[in-house]
Amino acid sequence: MADNGTGGVSTADLRAWAQQSRLPGDPPPLSDDAALLIAGGYLQPGPRSILVRRMSTGLPVPRLTGSSYTDLRRLQHDIAHVEKQLGSGVPNMVATVLRTRLSGMVRRREDARRIVVIGKGVFASSTRAIRRERRENLYLEIDERERLFAGLLGTPAANLPAGGTVRRAGSAAADRVASLVGQFAGRNAASNVEEWINEALGAPLSSTLTTRGGASFADGYETIQFVAGHFYDRIVGNPAWRSDFFEVQRTQVNLHAELAEIAADIVALRSLRLELDRARANGGFDQAFADHLNRREAALRPVWTELLDRVAALAEIARTVESAAVELRVLEEYDRASTLDARIDQLVARSGDREMSVDQTRRLSEQVKAGEEQLRIYRDVLQGDIARITPPMAMPELPERYEPDGR
To answer: What's the count of helices (H) and strands (E) in the chain, helices before strands?
Structure first.
């Protein structure tokens, strides 16, 4: 994800990306950890804190086998697409192909649901272990795992195809149906069936990607969720963040909790926006009521700005940590050079010439001190960035959750 040209990502950049539902560049998919925390935004505060606590303490969390949560989102997107086509009155022969494909995809989704909800080796299963995890506030109840899975079906994913993946998977079945029709009803009928199937399953993936470049998303809310998860991944995946130099900073902010809370507030804001739009559509003819809705919507704008500021702070932390990582690599090279110098010094000392060793040691010491001073500057910068993540006052009251439709 490209910076804005000044070395960072500003609140204005985030606002523009949200309005366009598009990001520059080709960012990688979110990690499973980021996807889980964003899905935690659909949970109640208590279960969400349990998920965060498990991740913070290194306890097991649900993991899919052989695929990612981004793949799960794409699978759900394809299921929704085929279900929509089946409801649009396609011919029976086309519907046969679609139902076959849909059945297979639903089975794959159900396999993923079982892993998340009742998978072995994650949550306690025996009565004694369940009681212990409940006492320690580490046990996520079955119904909350179901809700977590529903949230994972909406994992932010870029450039979702309009049925392209389904078309590739279903092409063999489509060809067989078209062939059978051709045998009994002639070439024109087979051609028509193939056209219907192609139309129902959607265009190939390559034709669904925009020519403008960048990564597109379902809406602005999902765009910002993805951005928050993207910078979370960049921070926690950076060795500098896990180094001793930032040990104090790691104790001052729980990045797992920050991402989950940002996701929860975005979910709540999206829910409120949907409710406002619905109320305006149903009662907007009353001017007094419409004015009231406009005032309430205006009251939410500062909340959205605060969220963008918090995501921008995450971006700044990622940039600072990545810059510090360069300094750490340089210091590691200095350490290796120091070892090499010691070996050289031994040889030089045996020859009676110590001047070069002293000069090299002095230069190396000055270089290391300069690198450590730069890292101290990075620590000071991180201190300010961390303070920006959490708003100074409590967020306005928001709805408990937003139920994703998985599309």
So the answer is: 15, 2
The CA distance from 30 to 152, in Å, is 12
Question: How far is the C-alpha of 207 from the C-alpha of 197, rounded, in Å?
Answer: 17
Tokens of 347: 């040889």
DSSP 1: -
Report pLDDT digits (tens) over 117-156: 999 999 999 999 999 999 999 999 999 999 999 999 999 9
Does residue 41 contact residue 150 with C-beta atoms inside 8 Å? no
pLDDT band at 194 (very low <50, low <70, confident <90, very high): low
Outline where DSSP puts E strands in 148-262: 215-216
320 close to 385: Cβ distance less than 8 angstroms: yes
- Report helix, strand or coil for 157: coil
| 47 CA to centre of own chain | 19
Each residue's pLDDT tens digit, 272-291: 988 888 888 887 677 888 88
Structure-token pair, residue 222: 């999902």
Kindly state the tokens that stand for 393.
Answer: 């006052």
pLDDT tens, residue by residue, 158-193: 999 765 444 444 444 444 444 444 444 444 444 555
Q: What is the pTM of this model?
A: 0.77
Q: At what angle do helices 287-351 and 255-283 cross, to 10 degrees?
A: 160
Q: What is the DSSP letter of 253?
A: -
DSSP letter string, 12-54: HHHHHHHHHTEESS-PPPPPHHHHHHHHGGGS-HHHHHHHHHH
Which residues in 193-223 are b (16+ Cβ under 10 Å) and which e?
A: bbebbbebbbebbeebeeeeebbbbbebbbb
In this prediction, residue 346 carries a pLDDT of 62
The model's pLDDT over 201-253, given as tens digits with 9 standing for 90+, comes to 654 443 444 445 689 999 999 999 999 999 999 999 998 888 887 888 888 88
- Measured distance CA(61)–CA(142) in Å, rounded: 14
Q: Which residues fall within 8 angstroms of residue 136, CB to CB, at 6 or more apart? A: none
